[in-house]
TrEMBL record:
<feature type="transmembrane region" description="Helical">
    <location>
        <begin position="231"/>
        <end position="251"/>
    </location>
</feature>
<feature type="transmembrane region" description="Helical">
    <location>
        <begin position="197"/>
        <end position="219"/>
    </location>
</feature>
<keyword id="KW-1133">Transmembrane helix</keyword>
<feature type="transmembrane region" description="Helical">
    <location>
        <begin position="278"/>
        <end position="297"/>
    </location>
</feature>
<feature type="transmembrane region" description="Helical">
    <location>
        <begin position="388"/>
        <end position="409"/>
    </location>
</feature>
<feature type="transmembrane region" description="Helical">
    <location>
        <begin position="155"/>
        <end position="177"/>
    </location>
</feature>
<dbReference type="Pfam" id="PF13520">
    <property type="entry name" value="AA_permease_2"/>
</dbReference>
<feature type="transmembrane region" description="Helical">
    <location>
        <begin position="357"/>
        <end position="376"/>
    </location>
</feature>
<feature type="transmembrane region" description="Helical">
    <location>
        <begin position="49"/>
        <end position="70"/>
    </location>
</feature>
<feature type="transmembrane region" description="Helical">
    <location>
        <begin position="415"/>
        <end position="434"/>
    </location>
</feature>
<dbReference type="GO" id="GO:0015179">
    <property type="term" value="F:L-amino acid transmembrane transporter activity"/>
</dbReference>
<dbReference type="GO" id="GO:0016020">
    <property type="term" value="C:membrane"/>
</dbReference>
<dbReference type="InterPro" id="IPR002293">
    <property type="entry name" value="AA/rel_permease1"/>
</dbReference>
<keyword id="KW-0472">Membrane</keyword>
<feature type="transmembrane region" description="Helical">
    <location>
        <begin position="129"/>
        <end position="148"/>
    </location>
</feature>
<feature type="transmembrane region" description="Helical">
    <location>
        <begin position="332"/>
        <end position="351"/>
    </location>
</feature>
<keyword id="KW-0812">Transmembrane</keyword>
Length: 440
């Protein structure tokens, strides 16, 4: 296998494609299945809406902070590249290691599994087909991303447009035809076990996750110093508005008590009850497409981290993982490896737990990246920036405090999981030093 020296990543993604990838990667299943969890923890409809707003504001602060970093380090690999540039090679490697070995594949696997479960629930298929559907979905989306990146970007645009159908339906029906008291209801009988406003906000943060992944495509975005900040900022703002309106529409459609009673089945209930059999199926198909679009964004972005690490010869089999197909200019072997790991996780049924375990370590690296904004400004005080975070230093401080809140919440709620997630990070240290030794 010989890599042609002049083969590089195809810098073909403009603002519409980048924006679609941000929105498409964030809006997956979270907004459709987290409604009950947020309301249950918040205890009232009004508190639930405020939790969605607070989660969105924290995510926006994080996105605006990273947007400034992205404008100065517009490299393939996103968070991995930022950590290496702002700190050192080891910290960059460890942030990439967690994302390519566990977090990325686990997120892809979880989406595939959730897609299969929803397909079974919506269309009453035999559960025996869940595993083939989950595996088939990630393989098909992976094949799309083997072709030139314009196809993955086009698929992102199409799925983002399609996923707006159920979103718009839930919002419009709730606003104009819903009769429940959207903001005046509280949940009876669960206050002894409710997690409170903080935990409710934490649940919304998971639904906002994925906003940073567009940064992994820094080497394939046109004018990345300008486009990446715009895509991250406008994308998060759009998702914030969508999430708050969906939450309000759901509450106005059936009320907080019914959402609590139905749990994750609340959205399917609204689809079938309010839109009829055919309309309900259209809404359900839109939700499935939404998950596929989210999956596409992750399959398009996570292998780019593996490719960037392999280019620096930081991984075993770096020559193969850094290979770009001369015709498609995509890292085909990195895509294959990420899909393979995700497929194994689906078969083992461990995707959800593994993705939860890595949330802690991902937010550790987020905090370091947010602090990095101050480091970059100190190192390069006279550097002209294409994008500067608004309300500096207040915005980065909000992002840091919000992420610390997530970390503390994880330590208190799942100390064993935190230990395991740190152990996964530690496993990367001997790999890093072995690769450093091989390069000498």
């Amino acid at each position: 296998m010989k890599q042609q020296e002049n083969v590089t990543l195809n810098r073909a993604l403009g603002l519409p494609a980048a924006l679609a990838l941000v929105i498409g990667t964030i809006i997956g299943g979270g907004v459709f299945v987290r409604q009950a969890a947020v309301i249950n923890d918040a205890g009232s409809a009004k508190a639930a809406i405020l939790a969605w707003i607070a989660g969105g504001i924290l995510t926006l602060a994080a996105g605006l902070t990273i947007a400034e970093v992205a404008s100065q380090i517009p490299s393939t690999g996103g968070l991995y590249a930022y950590m290496e540039e702002m700190y050192n090679e080891l910290w960059g490697f460890l942030s990439g290691w967690v994302q390519i070995i566990v977090y990325g594949p686990a997120m892809i696997a979880a989406l595939g599994s959730f897609l299969a479960i929803l397909t079974s629930a919506f269309f009453h298929t035999n559960p025996i087909w869940n595993l083939p559907i989950a595996l088939g979905s990630i393989i098909l989306v992976g094949i799309i991303n083997i072709f030139p990146n314009k196809y993955g970007a086009s698929f992102a645009l199409i799925t983002t447009a399609c996923k707006l159908v159920p979103v718009a339906a839930l919002i419009i029906f709730g606003l104009f035809y819903g009769h429940a008291d959207a903001l005046g209801q509280s949940i009876k009988g669960i206050h002894s076990t409710t997690g409170g406003f903080g935990v409710a906000m934490l649940a919304t943060l998971f639904a906002f996750d994925g906003w940073i992944l567009i940064a992994n495509l820094g080497g394939e975005v046109k004018n990345p110093r300008k486009v990446l900040p715009q895509a991250i900022s406008f994308g998060i703002l759009a998702v914030l508005a969508i999430y708050v309106l969906v939450a309000y529409g759901v509450l106005k459609s059936i009320g907080a008590e019914k959402v609590h009673e139905l749990g994750t089945a609340a959205i399917p209930y609204i689809a079938n009850h309010d839109f009829g059999n055919i309309g309900g199926k259209i809404i359900c198909i839109g939700i499935i497409i939404s998950i596929i679009g989210c999956m596409n964004g992750k399959i398009m972005t996570f292998p780019r981290i593996m490719y960037a690490m392999a280019e620096r010869k930081q991984l075993p089999f770096s020559k193969q993982l850094a290979y770009l197909n001369p015709k498609t200019r995509t890292p085909i072997f990195s895509i294959f490896v990420v899909i393979f790991i995700a497929a194994v996780m689906i078969c083992l049924g461990s995707a959800d737990r593994l993705s939860e375990l890595c949330i802690f370590t991902i937010y550790c690296f987020y905090v370091m990246a947010f602090v990095g904004v101050f480091l970059l400004r100190k190192r390069n005080p006279k550097m002209k920036r294409e994008f500067s975070v608004p309300l500096f230093p207040f915005t980065p401080i909000v992002a840091i405090l919000g992420s610390l809140f997530v970390l503390i919440s994880e330590v208190m709620s799942d100390p064993i999981g935190v230990f395991i997630s740190l152990a996964i990070v530690a496993l990367g240290i001997p790999v890093f030093y072995y690769q450093v030794y091989k390069r000498k």
